[in-house]
Specification:
- The protein is of the alpha/beta class and 185 residues long.
- The chain has a single domain, classed as Spore Coat Polysaccharide Biosynthesis Protein SpsA, Chain A, CATH 3.90.550.10.
- The protein has 7 helices and 9 strands; from the N terminus they run E-E-E-H-E-H-E-H-E-H-E-E-H-H-E-H.
- The chain has a 7-stranded mixed β-sheet with strand order 5-4-1-6-8-7-9, with helices on both faces.
- The protein starts with a strand and ends with a helix.
Amino acid sequence: MKRIGAVILAAGASRRLGEPKQLVKIGAENLLEHSVRVAREAGFSPVVVVLGASAESIEAECELGDADVLRNDNWCEGMSASVRVGVGALHDLDGCVVMTCDMPGVTALHLRSLAASGEVAGSTYDGRRGVPAYFPASLFKDLMELRGDAGAKDLLRSAQCVALAGGELDVDTIEDLARARKLFG
């Protein structure tokens, strides 16, 4: 059985939304709690949450259970800094799924399908590739070398992809939030 961890990126400032997106409710849970629950349901362990902006209030208001909560003091650098913090905390695994906290369409089934082959795999939606994405441990070194806000896009260019229904919806604006609440609860 493969040992797979999850790294949930939740460090951004949510400037376009105007409030911490990690805490907005869709149905009975907030976006960050949803992401942690889905990663657990997929069978991933450990589940690592990387916080940055508004970390104190997010930690205080979220029920994250046994998730490993880490702080990215360099969150302003962009997504790659959070990837480095999260992946740097993983040890003795076969791979990990990297995901963001603002995609309410992500399911445990989708996450498991990304990891099924053991090869790098990204999600596809709206004609592009992105997260959630699975990376075998052989690519952890490459993930640790990422810089800037592009994340791991270069590592996903030639990767296999799994279609993610609703993946184009990430909660960045008030309009996105209204759409997510209409679709998911």
